[in-house]
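Quick one: XRE family transcriptional regulator from Actinomadura barringtoniae, structure tokens please.
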Amino acid sequence: MTRRRVFDPGAVPVVFWRRTDVQDSLAHRDVGRLFGLFLDEFSDCTQTQLALLTQHDRSDISNWVRGTRQGRVSDIEVLTRIADGLQLPDQARLMLGLAPLGPVRLSTEPASSHQPPDRHSKDGPGAAPVSEPVHIAICGSRAPDTDASVIDATVGCLARLVMSLGCTVSHGPVGVGIEVMTYIADQYRPPEFDLALGRFGHRNVIQDAEFVVVLGGAAGTQSEIDLALSMGKKVIALPSSGGTARRFYHQAARDQRLRAWMSDEQFAALNACVVAGEDFVRIVEHLITKDLGAPSD
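--- reply ---
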């Protein structure tokens, strides 16, 4: 009798975790779909071995794969066992909503007097672009005319984006920005992340940022948007979050100059988010990474 070889999750190529369907299942925490994709791709891994690796009963794996058990999982302990058992790389862990195993660079230090680095500048022919982390300001609040459920959904997704890209974040002492950083501290517990410092004064929140992400908000948020535009910052607002974000979006719809840095299709997509938090953050990530990779004019 031939003994079946024990499946080694360490042999899974990183390209598997970068597949669109795999990343979609991770982002939605759809364990049933993830296991199905995993078993389809790696025929030498059985449901029994998958159960042993992730510390589940084989019947649990079978029910997840067949769809007779709820595929989406929110229990952090269950997700951690899956991530550890399958040896997910850090980017995949982040998409699943878990802390990475390696160090993550996050910065929330007070504003400095220097100008933000020019990511597209070159010291000479063939020089590499500046590798500083992207700096975003997260603005907004839960004003009376905002949609709390949309903001709730988006806070966690923004936290995952900040972790994934290693962003530097500035925010006010209250509002949605501090909610995102608190979510990171509570849910991810990243190494070397001890304190989130809010910045007092709208100008201090905005001045070093390259992108300004807006959720909800009231008069104070409008002041931050006005300052951002006067400084040539790129403003990305989620209209379904209500408040100032919605008002700015409608203003930008009438005045193309306020959104000249993005295409009409990208702008329209901001108002067509089906799953508000996840869809919005995908657009934000695309806008940020596409802009950073673009050559200077």
